[in-house]
Specification:
By secondary structure, this protein is α/β, with parallel strands linked by helices. Helix content is 36%, strand content 26%. It contains eight helices and nine strands. It has helices at residues 17-27, 31-35, 40-53, 84-97, 135-145, 163-176, 188-196, 225-228; strands at residues 3-5, 11-13, 56-60, 76-81, 102-107, 120-126, 146-157, 201-209, 215-222. Strands 5-4-3-6-7-9-8 form a seven-stranded mixed β-sheet. A two-stranded antiparallel sheet has the order 1-2. The model is unreliable at 1-13 (pLDDT under 50).
Length: 229
């Protein structure tokens, strides 16, 4: 695991792929029990947006497949995850519900998606961006595999830029990092900086979702440059 230097000159441990994979392998047996209800409203809001768009959908970080039965039957879904243990749960769910609109499930790194450019109408990433080693690299990959006019839909933690909440989030970071989470590194300014430096993407929607107003549903659209010309 690599060390990084924070702006205040102190050191902290950054994520690597093995750390994330191991963390979510451990979560696999109890993930639905712990997070199924907590994140249900945000999950349903994101999937409702996806169902309205239609077409071919990539869900990055599909986990145990808890979202899969909620997608409309008119969609074609491909799910990826870093954790084999999570994907085994997802495969069982596909079989249990007879989900014929699921094209496939595969172990894959969110930062190195094994799909050609312009492959999907929607890329869905629920609570993934703050759990990968290099979030901007993952966002770049999500944008790359989107078709023109397609949407990137993320459910994500948005931390505070300043104040007491920022202070608390920074103090919690060493505790939650081994669990596969980050608390203090993802203020909206970081997403805005990525968007400003990324050609061909625009913000469509940003709104708070439960629990506690610490999470947001964010939709980006890939601009169809040919159509706009």
């Amino acid at each position: 695991m690599a060390e990084i230097i924070k702006l205040d000159g102190t050191q902290q441990l950054d994520f690597d792929r093995a750390t994330v994979e191991q963390a979510y392998d451990r979560w696999a047996p109890i993930y639905d029990l712990v997070f199924g209800g907590v994140f249900s409203k945000g999950r349903r809001a994101a999937i409702a947006a996806t169902n309205r768009i239609g077409g071919r959908v990539l869900e990055v970080g599909v986990g145990t497949g808890i979202s899969l039965p909620l997608y409309g039957p008119h969609l074609r879904i491909f799910g990826t995850d870093i954790s084999e243990a999570m994907l085994e749960k997802a495969k069982n769910r596909v079989a249990e519900f007879g989900l014929k609109n699921v094209e496939g499930l595969a172990v894959m790194d969110a930062e190195k998606l094994e799909f050609p450019d312009d492959s999907f109408d929607v890329v869905m990433a629920q609570y993934v961006v703050t759990a990968v080693p290099n979030p901007e690299a993952a966002l770049d990959e999500f944008a790359r595999v989107l078709r023109p006019s397609g949407e990137l839909i993320i459910l994500t933690r948005v931390s505070a830029d300043a104040g007491m909440r920022r202070f608390i989030e920074q103090r919690l970071q060493p505790v939650v990092r081994p669990l596969g989470f980050r608390t203090a590194e993802f203020a909206w300014s970081r997403y805005a900086k990525w968007l400003a430096g990324t050609k061909g993407m625009e913000l469509v929607e940003r709104r708070l979702v439960p629990p506690l107003g610490h999470f947001s549903l964010v939709r980006f659209r890939k601009i169809d440059i040919a159509a706009a010309a």
